Amino acid sequence: MKSVVTSKYQTTIPKNIRLQLKLSVSDTLEWKVENGKAVVLPVHKRFFDHRNAIKTGKGDIAHDIDLAREKRIGKYR
User: Fold this and answer.
1) Residue 19: helix, strand or coil by DSSP?
2) What are 18-69's pLDDT values in tens digits?
3) Which residues, including other chains, have CB under 8 Å from residue 1's CB and lie 6 or more apart?
4) pTM of the predicted model over 0.90
5) What does the alpha-carbon distance between residue 12 and residue 61 come to, in Å, rounded to a whole number?
6) What does the alpha-carbon distance between residue 45 and residue 73 come to, in Å, rounded to a whole number?
7) For the residues 5-21, what does the mean pLDDT come to?
8) Which residues contact 71 (CB under 8 A, 6 or more apart)?
9) Which domains does the chain have, with CATH numbers?
10) In whole angstroms, what is the distance from residue 1 CA to residue 39 CA?
């Protein structure tokens, strides 16, 4: 596959490559030069590695809303 480098040194990643690398908007790419060739690697954020690290209960939404309102009113007293 080929892509063109624009006057601003930008290029489009072909769709097939984006799909294979599971890239999405705002992903980060790491660029390296190895043996005279450009190597581009996706830097996947490891956010979901921390899933379920903090245990939380259901909570009481109505109580939380009331508490937030009280704090906001207290600011203006």
Assistant:
1) helix
2) 999 989 888 889 999 999 999 999 987 777 777 777 777 788 889 989 999 9
3) 14, 16, 17
4) no
5) 45
6) 40
7) 95
8) none
9) 1-46 (2.10.260.10)
10) 15
